[in-house]
Amino acid sequence: MRTDRLDSVGNTTKALTKGYAVGSAALAAFLLFGAYIDEVRNYMPSFEPVINLNKPEVFVGAMLGAMLVFLFCSLAIKAVGQAAYAIINNVREQFRENPGIMAGTAKPDYGQCVDIATKAALRKMVLPGLLVVGMTLGVGLAFRWLYYAGGQLPTAATGAEVVGGFLMVGTITGILMALFLNNSGGAWDNAKKYIETGAYGGKKTDPHKASVVGDTGGDPFKDTAGPSLHVLIKLLSTITLVMAPLFL
Hints:
Layout: H1 2-43, H2 56-97, H3 100-103, H4 110-123, H5 126-149, H6 159-196, H7 206-242
Helix pairs in contact: 1-6, 1-7, 2-4, 2-5, 2-6, 2-7, 5-6, 5-7, 6-7
């Protein structure tokens, strides 16, 4: 009982500290965004330090930035489910092959589950990482090509300006999503613990079953997708700053 209450306090504390982490990522992204604009102007003095969403190309790039955040979150949450499913299958296999585990006469091989979780943690984040890098480069280079293929019209947006919109909206969406995932995940976890104290009928009731379902989604929200977005926000700014000359 006491550990459950301490765990609930820990979840709330983590949600608060993750808010500070999101704030630091937002501040870093803001400063790097300014550095990106300065870097572009160093290579292209005619570039106006304005991201004009009224240009169709910039607006499309901005929507792609928002889409990147949601796609990244979906991949991270899906990775948790796949890893958990692999561990469940391993546990069932151990029970089936070694009946002594259920009888209490033999110990399970915990190392197999640890090995599955460790490998999944590394492998499943390769695709989201490549997605961030590849999509940023793809947007910048694709719209750079369109800019020059269209004859460099005065009303057209350069690849650098499109990437600026991509970065700006991606950062804003990432910050809001990180706050949502961190707080909603902790709330669902604490709701289950609150019901398990006896509220709303306690365990083995319909409210408790519903809270378990909510907590199943809350854990990857607050422990995987939410914290990963902090890295995404900073990574987007860093990539665009380093690769800025390629988008001109």
